[in-house]
Amino acid sequence: MSNVNLLSHRIEKIRGRLSTLYQHVNASSLSSVESSAELLPTALVELGIVSESLQLAMEELAQQQERLAAIQTKVEGSQRRYHNLFELIPNPYLVTDTTFQIQDANRAAADLFNIQQQFLIGKPFSSLILSEDLPLLQAKLSQIHQRNRIELSVRLHRYCGGYFTANLTVNVIADWETNSTVLYWLLHDVTERKRVESSLNSSDYDPFKDRSVHYYSKGEIISLEPSKIWLVSSGVAKLTTLSDRGEEMLIGLVRDSMIFGSSLTALQTYQAIALTKVQLVSIPLTEIAQSPRLAQFLLPLLEQRLRQTESFLSIYGQLRVENRLSHLLSLLKQEIGQPIEDGVRLCVRLTHHDFASVCCTTRVTVTRLLGKLQQEGKIAFDSRNHIILKDKLF
After folding, report:
1. Which end of the chain is more exposed for a tag (fewer CB within 10 A), N or C?
2. Is 55 exposed, middle or buried, given 0-12, 13-18 or 19+ CB atoms closer than 10 A?
3. How far is it, in rounded angstroms, from Cα 193 to Cα 361?
4. How far is the C-alpha of 238 from the C-alpha of 157, rounded, in Å?
């Protein structure tokens, strides 16, 4: 028996005892003092019992109220936590009833529509959708009770003008507290993705178009993110790693329209340093995975990097240091050479340590061999100390 039913049962017993006592009073002859005197102790005893029962009932009622207050506090705390979590969800969320009236909206949704939260509450969700897309929404929502989840893409009004394209995921949830059904709408703004896809599908595809340009000065270390790759717009950067002795080793060079990134290597230590002023644009890996056109554009650039890496590896296979240096100069001529009147000028300066790391020798040896090549007239240096390759063997 529940506490409420038990309390009700005890009150009924009290009422019964009082009713019986009242009947005895009416049935007794109160004309004599003896009869009244005999009835008085019984009445007092009964009233005492009734008083104790009422006191006990009041104590149980007070305990019940305390328990209810504790439960209410816990429920309110849970509601606050739910609301706080709902507010902090980074994705835009709306909650509607089955007539699609908005009952709740988190901050991300308000930011997406460019309106304060309170002005979204009570609005029909259909009023936020472009009229051309309403038939699609209505057709999809007619299936909601069969699937409990639908997905579609529509265009939504943004307050203060304009609209955006959003992917909607709608889930049907039973609300046990109100014994009703609510719809949870998860919104993803895909306007930018649609723009990129449109750009990729155009005949004059330009991977640099509409992307933010990042600038690095000469000598700066370029930040690397595992989720993105860099595409060089202009300039030259060198790619390095660390040897077992902790020394920096040159493993690649990137210039205009070449790609690099930490996701393209298995090396634990990998660094990119600007050799000139460098301009870069970043491309998320997720975008590459979703865009066959972009992946098609990047494939030749990956092949280019692979060929360069193999060329660097071939240098290590030369037995004599002189041959390694000769092969390296030939590779640099191809990668960063600029034709001039009396030869091919390397557009950036590499340190003797860079040469030494590729040729597996010392800086002293590199200095000596470069001096020898200069004496033989195979190389020269301009006023900025850039190497000029004169010999056709390179």
Report:
1. N
2. exposed
3. 49
4. 47
